[in-house]
Structure formats: structure tokens, C-alpha cells
Specification:
The protein is mainly β. The chain has no helices and 28 strands. The N terminus is likely disordered.
């Protein structure tokens, strides 16, 4: 394994769990050999399904669920990361939005955390204190309306928040409304103000977003109709314009499916997305002139229900969280064509939902 005098590739995993069971896991990864070694785990959190890492200050933030006066409510939990010891230490926790949150993302200054409320149709902004503790809920925005699908889109379902590369805007993917809502982000006081919105195709159901490294294109993986939409992005105004939408499934596949995660390669040449049902990772090539996508291939996720995946910081590997088979699968990324190859290495984790590989 890596020596303590060098940077360590750490892997943080969030999962579905009861409060009395392990829910957040910490591993160390040897990138050259692909060995993954368990270091620590945290209990006391109910369903810490999504995580966000402050790499600069070595802090980890997790969403969780609790109850307040008999009412279900989301909370944010902060941990200190001891890189040398390979341990997590809880700093504090604070309630956030009702009834729960589905996603958390630190802004690019690591001074605020945005949480998305899939079940409540709301988005919250939480302060992060100078020593890393979770502060108060500073702002909350509620969405209204419905989408084209009467079952999946009967009401708003904000699924994730993504901050723009310059940290001026917060973009919310609302699965229930077929919209991406752009909020102007007050980086001084911590607030969200409506800026604009753009629609995906009806019935698409945007879930997660990813910016291209050039900052000019945004990709939305759409859960309900298994597609990816490509948007042109104006960094001055935060305005989005729909450029194209492509399916994530093979033409001959007729089974049930929902998509989950999306990522852009570090060199900007490829986009990857996960299919739950088809249980695959789809790879697209990016047109360097337009940002549009062309299918390359589908690769088995090596497990059921690939809820999330992530590229390692160097872009050389990809880790998939297969929730229904309780395992993480480790892939190499070919530097020439971006294709994935399963290494045969897996780690068994109970109901993994989120993976965050970080070099610390």
C-alpha cells in the first residue's frame, strides 16, 4: 500500500443503512494494483446515501435521516478525516430540510453545502463553519408543478445540485418537473436567487448533472426515459440551451431501466452513464466542436443496480457501486479510447449508493 509519507487515494462510500449499522465506509486504494483496503467505518447515521468531500480541509459531509418531534427530517453530518491514521471522526450534525435529502454538494469554496430534497420538492443551502462543522440552514427554495409522467412526475423531485465551475450559479436537476433550474449563488452571505430554467424533453426526468472541462457544455442524465441531454452553457448568465438528447440503452433492449449517475472523463473526450436494469455503464464520445455524444459501447457494471460510480482523480480507473448485489466493482480506463475493462476486483459493501475517490 501507499506509505504514509505520500498522498493516499482514499475511497469514501455512502450507503443505505439503519442508524445502528455501519453506513459510511473509508478505504484506501492502491491504484497500480487495484487493491482496496478497509480503513474505517462510521455508524449512527440512518441512510447516509450521499457524500461530499472537502479535499483542501480534509472533511467529509454526509446526508442522513432523523426525526424531530415525530417528523422525518434530513440532517447533514460532518467528519474530520485523519489521513495518516485512516480514520473518520464525527464533528457534529445539524438538521437541514424536511422530510429528507437525496444529495449533498459542497460549493467550490467549501463554505456552503447544498442539499436536494427529492421527496419534499425543495432545495436547501447549509453553512459550513470555519473549523468544518455543519452550521445552520441559510436558505430554502421550493419547486412547484409536475412533469409528463403521471406516476414518476406527479410533483417536483429535485434530485441533485451542481455548482457552476466559477461558483456563481447552483444548478438543480428536478426529475419531477423535467427542468434544470439555475439559481444565482450568493457566495458572500449564502443565498439562492432564481436565475433561469431550461426543460429537458417531456418525460425525461433529469437526475444528475456534469460539466465538461471546457465549462461550455452541461450533461444531464435523465432517469425516467433513460437518456442523456446535452446543453450549451453561458457562463456569464447561467443560461442553458438544449442541444441534443441521446438514449443510454441499446436499441434492442426492451426491459425496465432507470439511469443514475453521469461523469465526464478528465480529458473531456468521453461521457459515462449508468443504467439500472440493463445494469451497465454506457460510454459516449464527445464531439469536440459541439459537445454532442456518439455511442461507443455498453459494459456490464458487474452487479445489479449500479446506483453510482466515479472516476479516480487521474481518470485512470472507474469504481461502480452496485447496490442490489452489495458490491463495488473496479475498472480500468483505456487512455487511448476511454473504454472500460473490468479488473476482476470487487469489494463487498452493504447497499452502496455513493462512491467518492479522493487523493489526500
Amino acid at each position: 500500500m501507499l506509505s504514509e509519507s505520500h498522498s493516499r487515494l482514499l475511497l469514501f462510500v455512502g450507503s443505505y443503512a439503519e442508524a445502528g449499522d455501519p453506513g459510511v465506509y473509508l478505504y484506501e486504494v492502491n491504484p497500480s494494483g487495484g487493491e482496496i483496503r478497509a480503513l474505517d467505518q462510521a455508524t449512527g447515521l440512518k441512510n447516509p446515501t450521499f457524500l461530499s468531500v472537502d479535499q483542501d480541509n480534509r472533511k467529509l459531509y454526509a446526508i442522513a435521516e432523523t426525526s424531530l418531534e415525530g417528523e422525518r427530517i434530513g440532517e447533514v453530518v460532518a467528519f474530520d478525516i485523519d489521513v495518516t491514521a485512516g480514520t473518520l471522526r464525527e464533528l457534529n450534525r445539524k438538521v437541514s430540510i424536511r422530510p429528507s435529502s437525496s444529495h449533498i454538494q459542497l460549493d467550490r469554496s467549501n463554505r456552503f453545502a447544498a442539499v436536494a430534497g427529492y421527496h419534499g420538492g425543495n432545495v436547501g443551502l447549509v453553512e459550513v463553519m470555519p473549523e468544518g462543522q455543519v452550521g445552520q440552514l441559510l436558505d430554502e427554495r421550493r419547486h412547484e408543478g409536475q412533469g409528463a409522467d403521471p406516476v414518476r412526475q406527479d410533483r417536483p423531485h429535485p434530485h441533485s445540485v451542481t455548482f457552476s465551475p466559477d461558483n456563481r450559479f447552483a444548478l438543480v436537476a428536478d426529475l419531477g418537473l423535467d427542468k434544470i433550474t439555475v439559481y444565482a449563488f450568493d457566495q458572500a452571505g449564502g443565498g439562492l436567487a432564481y436565475q433561469s430554467e431550461v426543460s429537458t424533453p417531456p418525460g425525461a426526468g433529469p437526475r444528475h448533472l456534469a460539466f465538461h472541462p471546457n465549462g461550455q457544455w452541461l450533461y444531464s442524465i435523465n432517469e425516467v426515459n433513460s437518456s442523456i441531454s446535452v446543453f450549451r452553457y453561458d457562463s456569464e448568465t447561467g443560461h442553458l440551451a438544449l442541444a441534443d438528447t441521446v438514449p443510454t440503452l441499446p436499441e434492442d433492449y426492451d426491459g425496465e431501466n432507470t439511469t443514475a449517475e453521469i461523469a465526464v472523463s478528465t480529458d473531456g473526450r468521453y461521457v459515462y452513464g449508468s443504467n439500472r436494469g440493463h445494469d451497465s455503464i454506457v460510454q459516449f464520445a464527445v464531439d469536440p466542436a459541439s459537445g454532442k455524444l456518439k455511442l461507443v459501447e455498453h459494459v456490464s457494471s458487474e452487479g445489479g443496480h449500479p446506483r453510482h460510480f466515479a472516476l479516480t482523480p487521474d481518470g485512470g480507473h472507474l469504481i461502480v457501486a452496485n447496490r442490489d448485489d452489495n458490491l463495488l466493482a473496479w475498472f480500468t480506463v483505456n487512455p487511448d479510447d476511454g473504454k472500460l475493462a473490468f479488473t476482476g476486483r470487487i469489494v463487498h459493501v452493504s447497499k452502496p449508493v455513493c462512491v467518492k475517490p479522493v487523493l489526500l
